[in-house]
Amino acid sequence: MKAGKVLLGILAGTAAGALAGILLAPQKGSRTRRQILNKSEDYADGLKEKIEDMVLSLTKQYNTAVSDVDELVAKGKSKFNHALVEVDHLMTNSKEIKSDKS
């Protein structure tokens, strides 16, 4: 998550610099307010896009993990069922051997 903090710091610094530049520019207040509004909308759109990308990435990772777990569970069940069949086979053979000795 360190890269995320760095990216957030860069975005905040860029926004602060842009805001300072706009506020110090010699122009009408209405035009300055419009520029601030436009810049804030641009930054909000960029942030929204980054969040959507992050959510998509996390969703893909989650789905991959779920698929991997499902596969491991299926393999475990298969091995368990195979072991049960083997134990049953050994128990049957053991009973047959004991009855033959009697």
What can you see in these coordinates?
With 102 residues, the protein is mostly helical. It contains two helices and no strands. The protein has helices spanning 2-24, 29-101.
Short description:
With 102 residues, this protein is mainly α. It has two helices and no strands.
What assembly state would you assign to the polypeptide chains in this entry? Answer: single chain
SSE-based structural type: mainly alpha
Order of helices and strands: HH
Instruction: Give the fraction of residues assigned to helices.
Output: over 70%
DSSP, total strands: 0
What's the shape?
rod-shaped
Unreliable spans are none
Radius of gyration: 33 Å
Distance between the termini: 71 Å
Could you report the average pLDDT, rounded to the nearest whole number?
84
Total number of helices: 2
What is the beta-strand fraction? under 5%
Main beta-sheet strand count, sense and barrel state? none
Essential attributes:
mainly alpha, 94% helix, 102 residues, single chain
Topology (elements, then pairings):
Elements (H helix, E strand, L loop, with lengths): L1 H23 L4 H73 L1
